[in-house]
């Protein structure tokens, strides 16, 4: 069985960071995701999808993401239900994200850091690991100096 979801959309509000009674961080936000087709009036319709992330990823998302940012989320679909104050059973569908990446540069008015950082749960990825250039394709078209010993085949 497989339950994987990949979404690309814009945040509809600033992420909300909370902590469980046990001290575990949880952040929720909503993505506006355009459908890949137009309706009869020639307009694109949009789905608004709730996303929740946990632990260190939750804190990172809450600190650096802002309303309007274009992000990619990878995770799994979760459907849960609960009883509201009126005694009615409420069913909720949400994506539990385990990988979140910025897809825009942010800049002024968008909040957050500059050049396209990515946040993956337990990835250990850091900007310093990329070398001196923020753009990994800056030398595109120039020869790459690789010895035969560097190749795995």
UniProtKB/TrEMBL annotation:
Chain positions covered by the region annotation Disordered: 103-153
PROSITE patterns: SSB
UniProt motif (Important for interaction with partner proteins) ranges: 148-153
Keywords from the named record: DNA damage, DNA recombination, DNA repair, DNA replication, DNA-binding
UniProt GO BP: DNA recombination; DNA repair; DNA replication
Cellular component, GO, one term: nucleoid
Extent of Basic and acidic residues compositional bias: 125-145
DNA damage is among the record's keywords: yes
Coiled-coil annotated residue ranges, if any: none
Pfam families, alphabetized: SSB (PF00436)
UniProt xrefs under InterPro entries: NA-bd_OB-fold, Primosome_PriB/ssb, ssDNA-bd
A GO MF term: single-stranded DNA binding
Entry superkingdom: Bacteria
Known role: Plays an important role in DNA replication, recombination and repair. Binds to ssDNA and to an array of partner proteins to recruit them to their sites of action during DNA metabolism.
Subunit structure: Homotetramer.
Entries under PANTHER family matching the protein: SINGLE-STRANDED DNA-BINDING PROTEIN (PTHR10302:SF27)
Family matches, as NCBIfam families: ssb
Name this protein carries in UniProt: Single-stranded DNA-binding protein
UniProt organism field: Melghirimyces profundicolus
């Amino acid at each position: 069985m497989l339950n994987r979801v990949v979404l690309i959309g814009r945040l509809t509000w600033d992420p909300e960071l909370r902590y469980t009674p046990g001290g575990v961080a949880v952040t929720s936000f909503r993505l506006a995701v355009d459908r890949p087709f137009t309706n009869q009036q020639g307009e694109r319709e949009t789905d608004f999808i709730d996303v929740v992330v946990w632990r260190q990823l939750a804190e990172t998302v809450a600190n650096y993401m802002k309303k309007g940012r274009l992000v990619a989320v990878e995770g799994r679909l979760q459907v849960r239900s609960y009883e509201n104050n009126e005694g009615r059973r409420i069913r909720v569908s949400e994506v539990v994200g385990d990988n979140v990446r910025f897809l825009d540069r942010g800049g002024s008015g968008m909040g957050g850091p500059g050049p396209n950082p990515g946040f993956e749960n337990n990835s250990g990825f850091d900007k310093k690991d990329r070398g001196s250039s923020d753009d990994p394709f800056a030398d595109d078209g120039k020869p790459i100096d690789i010895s035969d010993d560097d190749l795995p085949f």
